[in-house]
Structure prediction request, 726 residues.
Amino acid sequence: MATTLTPVLTETWDADRSWTLATYEGAGGYEGLRKALSLAPADVVTMVKDSGLRGRGGAGFPTGMKWGFLPAPDGGPRYLVVNADESEPGTCKDIPLMMASPQHLIEGMIITSYAIGCDHAFLYVRGEVLHVYRRLLLAIEEARAAGYLGTDILGSGYDLEITLHSGAGAYICGEETALLDSLEGLRGQPRLKPPFPAVAGLYARPTVVNNVESIASVPGIVVGGSDWFKAMGTERSTGHGLFSLSGHVTRPGQYEAPLGITLRELLDMAGGIREGHELKFWTPGGSSTPIFTAAHLDVPLDYESVATAGSMLGTRALQIFDETTSVVRAVTRWTEFYKHESCGKCTPCREGTYWLTQVLQRLEAGQGTSADIDLLLDLCDNILGRAFCALGDGATSPITSAVQYFREEFEAGTRTPADVLFPPEHSSLFTYTPRQTGVLAGVHA
Amino acid sequence: MSVEAGRTPGQTHRTSYDAETHARLTADSDAIVARYPQARSALLPMLHLVQSEDGYVSPRGIAFCASHLGLTTAEVSAVATFYTQYKRHPNGDYTVGVCINTLCAVMGGDAIWEELSDCLGVGHDETTDDGRITLERIECNAACDYAPVVMVNWEFFDNQTPDSAREIVDTISAGNPVVPTRGADTVVSFKEMSRVLAGFGDGRANEGVGGGVPTLRGIELARAEGWKAPPLQASGTAAPAGGEPKVGGEQSSAQRPATTSGDVSPAGEQKKQTSGEAKES
Prediction:
């Protein structure tokens, strides 16, 4: 049987004024909180553990287990911090979720805070999404006015405040310890682990850091039960997830499906590759996950199967590129991104991404040397596993996988510019005449 | 009021606020500090607040933050220079950002960048002579299903072309308001935007749509096909008013757990997964 969509988080997105509390309550919202408050906090943790929910921000770590890592209460504060710094190239699920249905997240935050014994939760949203910030601010105000936040929530005796916090433009703050430093008013650089945030996180107190979609999935689990959640997905990758299709696909967008659906099935739903073209390469979960090709159309998009096939499920950010696209151009641009976003704390990432960019730029210009591919792979080898955090590792993924599948295009970079082999106007969604080749106008670095 | 020389010949920076402004900023900053268990956490929103006053992170703004939080100006500057949204010189009234990360670039973002840089006569992080527009090459803004994307003061302008993007900057240059595809009814100024990011709402959250066409594609397809998630078991208290999948609905698929072709976990455990665990958990 073909897999079908399973709208849970997306269920109310098409409603009139979908973002309001009234719409959310009208669709059964906050039933999960009422049920959770009638249970012991430990039972809520158990329920989420039993559901098999794994982190939806990319790493896939079991959410309930993460909560369970908190040490026993010592009378001091414990914190929930939600990571809404969605910035991984290709990833575009949390931002539309918070725009269309912020109450899903707020209810999830309240339930989670109750479960882990937290009285003050934080929502760290990237600063470059003004209207999402407005919607979240409103959602918190509405929840407070309805008695879901503040003191003695719904007469339970439980108190909670949520602080909304805007970032200011730094991809690295999606790394959980960099996010905590940023939230403490510092430069957003990752911390040495251990200690992990569960032991010494925000203000050196026990802290849970979870992704938006993970937390937004909690109310459904509490209402439906862990078996309901496990009825979707695979044995070890349970539940529903947002699959974000973008690029050379007929109908790009957000498709909420059980984990384990394939790209072939999703492309069928999205009208296939744009007319007259064919799939060349794609990312299963953002630019930090090794690319796939048409040979991987039937890989089940669950954590295990994607890993077995040589990549990572990541954020289910399916960026689709057709045969008009230069792999060298795509990879060079991603690498420039990592260079720009490297926080500078550790040498392998700071220096490595800089040199990767130098080599890739000359390959893109058709001026590479015969030793450049080996040089790239050697550089990657010196970054992967040696960087302070996952940013450096992620920077190597597109390069090593692209060389693996499209080595001949990198070899061509010793002779022919990428924009001669793959004229960019063939890839764009509109027709235009490029003004110049080589360096773009107005680009300094 | 004293002034000091800026980085551009002839440009000067004010080095302090007048009493009234200082009192207002102090009150706002007190409100920000009150949101956190520790005062220093207020620094990022306070820098947005400074930008709402001065249009950039000014020397006097840095001094103000340092004084208010008991930090040195060096400590504040170290933070301000780490984040790209904090501007080191006066920003235009509107930041126009063209996404040039891979996906948007390939779908046409590079062409849009060329068009705007050409017609405005400025490069990355440069401001037009009339002070209206600061042009930026921006990274992925989480709207890839709307590529190519342009952001104006961090409101979404989806599915752009060189012509549509040029129309946006022409409208701004002419002093007229521009309307995002997903956002408020009009784009507010850089200073007004910065005040919202400092945590002071402008009452515009109810403007605009919940989601654009790509956002809603999955749910609309599910409705058309009658696809639903397995029904939620009602807890018995506070039954949902409607909207959740109904048990026993006409669509038999609504009662059947979704299964997938990959419903067997492979024996091989992922290795590379560990490297991702530190990222976006």
Summary: The beta strands of chain A are 79-84, 120-125, 161-166, 207-211, 240-247, 253-258, 279-283, 292-293, 317-322. The radius of gyration of chain A is 22 Å. Chain A is about 40% helix and 10% strand. The mean pLDDT of chain A is 96.
